[in-house]
Amino acid sequence: MLEADPQEFFALFGAERRPDPYPHYRRWRERRPVAALAEGMFAVSGLAEATQVLRDPAFGHPEPEYLDPADRLPDQPVDESGRVVRAFLSLNPPDHTRLRRLVAKAFTPRMVEQLTPRIEEITAELIERARGEFDLMTSLAKPLPVEVIAELLGVPLDDRERFAAWSHAMARALDPPFLQHPETVEPAVRARQSFVGYFRELAERRRREPGDDLLSALVAVSDAGDVLSEGELLVTLTLLLIAGHETTTNLIGNGVLALLRHGGWAEAPDRVVEEVLRHDSPVQLTARTALRDTTLGTRPIPAGSQVIILLGAANRDPATGPAPESFDPSRAPGRHLAFGQGIHFCLGAPLARLEGRIVFRELARRLPNLKPAADPTWNPTTTLRGLATLPVASGERG
């Protein structure tokens, strides 16, 4: 028996609710933290239930499909048997374990730490260029993560503008099918083809002439003789681009909007980052598949069922702490699921946190009188929640 009208669930993500979906999430979560939407489809919005799905090995991802050559998209990476090559984020052990271990050997904490001076430099330059009224998204939130991930990967300066355009087009196609708009699919396919072609050529150059960048490290990384195949390298780079650019852009934009509306500039930047991640998470949705018959709490979940996890709702569950609907950077960092949980916890979380801390610190120091200049507008996506524009006025500089 269904417990919820699927259309009522889909209505949570309507354009009219995009500026503030959270009251609607709250009402949904209070009535049905786990809800059957259709046969073999469940929605999870409670913190305990969402955490269980993310951590429990009974939930994972469908196995990659095998494609006939006639059914493949151009430049779609497949392995020797014709199986679609996926990024480790969409794999189960042991494939996930192997690929994540290889990528983690290249994308090290030391590499992230070494980026600190450059992130500070880029942030300062972008803020100093901002005068009078300006769009914070265009001036800071979008270019900074592009610069950082491009430098990390060793992308030439002249190529970074199209690099950002590919990322944005691919990110728009991340929504689940019931939220997809047909007009986003073709641009995403074209962007992915361009991205794959570009990085196939750049990776070959790095094999011949390695540099001090993550792409060179990924090309060369090995573990007991195991290496990334070309397809694995390309899908990993796609993941790093979107995860390292779009989500951090949204962290910055959502955070500045919350600070402008509710204050908290004087708080420690690390606390601001964690509260933004909890209060208005850049990633709102994710999904898992039941790999075997299991239970969620006391509820039976048949093998093969899809479970949609409302991260944005779970992050405001009262179990996260007092007054969960309020933005309060002074609160001690508590539980949130913005970076996931378990084996799929975001590998790039340290870099996102670093960029967020630096941005919020430098804005508080350099533009202490920053004010809203007009209403913001939101991107037409749900999985990745972020602003299209955030008009602000710099006021008197600090």
Could you describe the 3D structure shown?
- The chain is an alpha+beta fold.
- The protein has a single domain (6-393), classed as Orthogonal Bundle (Cytochrome p450).
- Helices cover 46% and strands 11% of the residues.
- The protein is built from 15 helices and 14 strands.
- It has helices spanning 6-10, 22-31, 47-55, 95-106, 109-114, 116-129, 136-141, 143-153, 160-171, 182-208, 214-220, 230-262, 269-279, 311-314, 349-366; strands spanning 34-38, 41-44, 59-60, 133-135, 222-223, 226-227, 285-290, 294-296, 299-301, 306-310, 371-372, 377-378, 387-389, 391-393.
- A five-stranded mixed sheet has the order 1-2-10-7-3.
- A hairpin with a 2-residue loop joins strand 1 (34-38) and strand 2.
- It is globular, with a radius of gyration of 21 Å.
- The model has no long low-confidence stretch (mean pLDDT 90).
